[in-house]
Amino acid sequence: MNIGTAPARRSSYQLLRLVEEKGDLGTWVWDVATGAVEWSPGLYRIAGVDPSRQRASFDLYQSLIHPDDRLDLSAGMDLSDHSTIFDRDFRLIRPDGAVRWLRGFGEVVHDADGRIRQAAGVVFDITSQKSVSTSLHRASCSLEELARALGGAIWIKEADGTVADIFGWQELTGQSLAGVQNSGWRDAIHPQDRERIGRLWQDALKSGTGYVATCRIHTASAGQVPMTITVRPVRERESAFLRFVGICLPATRPADGGPGDRGTAPALSPRQIRAARAVLGWSVEDLATRSGVSGSTIRRHEGGGTGRPVGAALLDCLRETFEAEGITFGTEDGRASVAFADGGAERADD
């Protein structure tokens, strides 16, 4: 009847050691009546304690726990509430000073009379997970602050189009992470721009490529605001496509004298816009599609009539669209000119 018992015990012991080593875990048993405590080799390793020099004990365990994470046992220990005593995350300080994050779970064993006879548990070393979690939290806070400072938003989408995270978008538009799912983000786009931006996104989703586009976004504090959206695919390697990252920034730049300040740049004249379209071979509809400014608004400005003037924000939007294509605006012999950044100029006021 006992044939194979000893090998089976050795096999079980070896399996336990393998699980503990590969899983970064350790186990313990506490005899409540005698106070005796047993640690597995894995727990000794996690705690950084040499079993040949120190014997496991409840006091030793308590002394290793970070002071801020120790339980207040001055009023005694209610072992019946093991979910509070044993099931928790806490820090442990090894004798060498290293700090490890642990996650513990435990249960109590009762005797025939219902008295607690023994407690046993398992402890996982979750230091690596905590480190990753902390790094992600810090990165998230940094992106949120960056988006706020830029007056825009940053977002991350998975390869299937699911919005993984947003930074600054809720503050900008009032939409939460749940609200932007299933193309809910399109609700913040101006109705006249939704189809165009939606088409650009679907093309990017299918081809795994990025795009730059300007459109009007309904903000929570300032109504419709021209914004430039830049979307880029993120790849782990040359071929492994992972997700998209996008940034949405005001199409206009603050007149604060900082880098890229447009505060002193004169508004584009009707002739400059017509000349820039001619250089690029664009129709009014082409410019409207790329800039997010309606065709009627472009025609009204190009006509130079006495109607309602076009706002500076929309004219800046047109300027940025042209400049993104390599067009520069300047003066030549005192006359306004339009040119490619690396090509010849064409006078716009002839």
Can you put this structure into words, describing what you see?
This protein is α+β, with helices and mostly antiparallel strands and 350 residues long. The chain folds into 3 domains: 5-125, 2-Layer Sandwich (Beta-Lactamase), CATH 3.30.450.20; 151-250, Beta-Lactamase (2-Layer Sandwich), CATH 3.30.450.20; 270-347, lambda repressor-like DNA-binding domains (434 Repressor (Amino-terminal Domain)). The chain is 35% helix and 27% strand. It contains 11 helices and 13 strands. The strands form 3 sheets. Strands 2-1-5-4-3 form a 5-stranded antiparallel sheet. A 5-stranded antiparallel sheet has the order 7-6-10-9-8. Strands 11-12-13 form a 3-stranded antiparallel sheet. A hairpin with a 3-residue loop joins strand 8 and strand 9 (223-235). The protein is rod-shaped, with a radius of gyration of 33 Å.
